[in-house]
User: What shape does this take?
Amino acid sequence: MKILNVKKAAFAALAAAAFTVATGVYAHGEQEHAAPRRYDPAKVEPTDFGQEGNPKKVTRTIKVDMADNMRFTPADITLRRGETVKFVVTNSGKLLHEMVLGTNQAIKEHAELMKKFPEMEHADANMAHVKPGKAADIVWQFTKAGEFQFACLQPGHFEAGMVGKVTVK
Assistant: This one.
Protein backbone atom coordinates (compact mmCIF):
# COMPACT_ATOMS: atom_id res chain seq x y z
CA MET A 1 0.00 0.00 0.00
CA LYS A 2 2.87 2.40 0.85
CA ILE A 3 4.46 1.81 -2.56
CA LEU A 4 1.19 2.69 -4.28
CA ASN A 5 0.93 5.95 -2.27
CA VAL A 6 4.55 6.86 -3.11
CA LYS A 7 3.83 6.26 -6.81
CA LYS A 8 0.67 8.39 -6.61
CA ALA A 9 2.60 11.19 -4.87
CA ALA A 10 5.41 11.03 -7.43
CA PHE A 11 2.90 11.10 -10.30
CA ALA A 12 1.05 14.05 -8.74
CA ALA A 13 4.31 15.98 -8.33
CA LEU A 14 5.31 15.24 -11.93
CA ALA A 15 1.87 16.27 -13.21
CA ALA A 16 1.99 19.50 -11.20
CA ALA A 17 5.45 20.32 -12.57
CA ALA A 18 4.34 19.62 -16.13
CA PHE A 19 1.23 21.76 -15.65
CA THR A 20 3.32 24.63 -14.25
CA VAL A 21 5.70 24.47 -17.20
CA ALA A 22 2.92 24.07 -19.74
CA THR A 23 0.82 26.94 -18.44
CA GLY A 24 3.34 29.32 -16.92
CA VAL A 25 6.16 29.40 -19.39
CA TYR A 26 4.48 27.82 -22.37
CA ALA A 27 0.74 28.58 -22.77
CA HIS A 28 0.09 28.73 -26.54
CA GLY A 29 -3.63 28.97 -27.15
CA GLU A 30 -5.82 31.67 -28.59
CA GLN A 31 -4.79 34.30 -26.07
CA GLU A 32 -2.64 37.28 -27.05
CA HIS A 33 1.10 37.02 -26.76
CA ALA A 34 3.08 39.36 -24.61
CA ALA A 35 3.55 42.93 -25.82
CA PRO A 36 5.53 43.22 -29.06
CA ARG A 37 9.25 42.73 -28.60
CA ARG A 38 11.40 45.80 -28.44
CA TYR A 39 14.87 45.44 -29.86
CA ASP A 40 17.51 45.49 -27.13
CA PRO A 41 21.06 44.85 -28.41
CA ALA A 42 22.12 43.72 -24.92
CA LYS A 43 19.61 40.84 -25.12
CA VAL A 44 20.44 39.60 -28.64
CA GLU A 45 21.52 35.97 -28.54
CA PRO A 46 23.30 34.40 -31.53
CA THR A 47 21.88 31.09 -32.76
CA ASP A 48 22.87 28.54 -35.38
CA PHE A 49 20.69 30.38 -37.91
CA GLY A 50 21.37 34.03 -37.03
CA GLN A 51 20.09 36.46 -34.46
CA GLU A 52 17.40 39.00 -33.75
CA GLY A 53 17.88 41.86 -36.18
CA ASN A 54 18.05 45.57 -35.49
CA PRO A 55 14.89 47.10 -37.04
CA LYS A 56 16.93 50.20 -37.97
CA LYS A 57 19.26 48.05 -40.10
CA VAL A 58 16.67 46.18 -42.18
CA THR A 59 17.98 45.77 -45.73
CA ARG A 60 14.99 43.93 -47.12
CA THR A 61 11.29 43.39 -46.37
CA ILE A 62 9.64 40.13 -47.37
CA LYS A 63 5.89 39.57 -47.17
CA VAL A 64 4.90 36.03 -46.19
CA ASP A 65 1.30 34.82 -46.26
CA MET A 66 -0.01 31.94 -44.16
CA ALA A 67 -3.19 30.21 -45.32
CA ASP A 68 -5.55 27.46 -44.19
CA ASN A 69 -4.35 25.20 -47.02
CA MET A 70 -1.33 24.77 -44.70
CA ARG A 71 1.08 26.61 -46.97
CA PHE A 72 3.32 29.66 -46.82
CA THR A 73 3.62 32.01 -49.78
CA PRO A 74 6.42 32.26 -50.69
CA ALA A 75 7.65 28.91 -49.40
CA ASP A 76 11.22 29.30 -50.65
CA ILE A 77 13.33 32.37 -49.84
CA THR A 78 16.95 33.06 -50.77
CA LEU A 79 19.00 35.64 -48.86
CA ARG A 80 22.56 36.87 -48.50
CA ARG A 81 24.60 36.12 -45.39
CA GLY A 82 24.61 39.16 -43.09
CA GLU A 83 21.32 40.47 -44.42
CA THR A 84 18.81 41.83 -41.89
CA VAL A 85 15.32 40.98 -43.08
CA LYS A 86 11.92 42.14 -41.91
CA PHE A 87 9.31 39.44 -42.51
CA VAL A 88 5.78 40.84 -42.59
CA VAL A 89 3.78 37.72 -41.78
CA THR A 90 0.07 37.83 -42.63
CA ASN A 91 -2.51 35.22 -41.70
CA SER A 92 -5.08 35.23 -44.53
CA GLY A 93 -6.83 32.17 -43.11
CA LYS A 94 -9.46 31.57 -40.46
CA LEU A 95 -7.21 29.44 -38.24
CA LEU A 96 -4.43 30.54 -35.91
CA HIS A 97 -1.01 30.25 -37.61
CA GLU A 98 2.57 31.06 -36.76
CA MET A 99 5.91 31.40 -38.49
CA VAL A 100 8.90 30.03 -36.59
CA LEU A 101 12.42 30.36 -38.04
CA GLY A 102 15.10 27.81 -37.18
CA THR A 103 17.47 25.10 -38.21
CA ASN A 104 15.84 21.98 -39.59
CA GLN A 105 16.70 20.16 -36.34
CA ALA A 106 15.42 22.96 -34.08
CA ILE A 107 12.11 23.10 -35.99
CA LYS A 108 11.67 19.31 -35.66
CA GLU A 109 12.44 19.45 -31.92
CA HIS A 110 10.06 22.38 -31.40
CA ALA A 111 7.33 20.54 -33.35
CA GLU A 112 7.73 17.52 -31.04
CA LEU A 113 7.51 19.78 -28.00
CA MET A 114 4.33 21.35 -29.39
CA LYS A 115 2.80 17.87 -29.64
CA LYS A 116 3.43 17.37 -25.93
CA PHE A 117 2.34 20.91 -24.93
CA PRO A 118 -0.17 22.09 -27.58
CA GLU A 119 -1.12 25.17 -25.53
CA MET A 120 2.50 26.38 -25.51
CA GLU A 121 3.02 30.15 -25.83
CA HIS A 122 6.29 31.86 -26.57
CA ALA A 123 7.38 35.24 -27.80
CA ASP A 124 10.89 34.71 -29.13
CA ALA A 125 12.44 36.97 -31.76
CA ASN A 126 12.45 34.18 -34.37
CA MET A 127 8.68 33.69 -34.39
CA ALA A 128 5.38 35.39 -35.09
CA HIS A 129 2.11 34.00 -33.70
CA VAL A 130 -0.66 35.51 -35.87
CA LYS A 131 -4.43 35.43 -35.41
CA PRO A 132 -6.71 35.19 -38.48
CA GLY A 133 -6.80 38.39 -40.52
CA LYS A 134 -3.84 39.89 -38.62
CA ALA A 135 -0.15 40.46 -39.36
CA ALA A 136 3.07 40.48 -37.34
CA ASP A 137 6.74 41.16 -38.00
CA ILE A 138 9.93 39.19 -37.49
CA VAL A 139 13.22 41.06 -37.88
CA TRP A 140 16.09 38.62 -38.26
CA GLN A 141 19.74 38.90 -39.22
CA PHE A 142 21.02 35.86 -41.08
CA THR A 143 24.64 35.70 -39.90
CA LYS A 144 25.41 32.22 -41.21
CA ALA A 145 25.19 30.61 -44.62
CA GLY A 146 23.10 27.47 -44.93
CA GLU A 147 19.66 26.06 -45.43
CA PHE A 148 17.10 26.81 -42.72
CA GLN A 149 13.37 26.36 -42.24
CA PHE A 150 10.33 28.26 -41.21
CA ALA A 151 7.22 26.41 -40.12
CA CYS A 152 3.85 26.72 -38.48
CA LEU A 153 3.98 24.62 -35.33
CA GLN A 154 0.32 24.84 -34.41
CA PRO A 155 -0.95 21.29 -33.82
CA GLY A 156 -1.20 19.41 -37.11
CA HIS A 157 0.02 22.26 -39.33
CA PHE A 158 3.69 21.21 -39.54
CA GLU A 159 2.61 17.62 -40.17
CA ALA A 160 0.33 18.86 -42.98
CA GLY A 161 3.33 20.42 -44.73
CA MET A 162 3.21 24.02 -43.49
CA VAL A 163 6.96 24.45 -43.90
CA GLY A 164 9.16 26.78 -45.91
CA LYS A 165 12.86 27.02 -46.71
CA VAL A 166 15.35 29.86 -46.29
CA THR A 167 18.61 29.52 -48.20
CA VAL A 168 21.36 31.87 -47.05
CA LYS A 169 24.30 32.25 -49.44
About this structure: The longest strand covers residues 60-67. The mean pLDDT is 81.
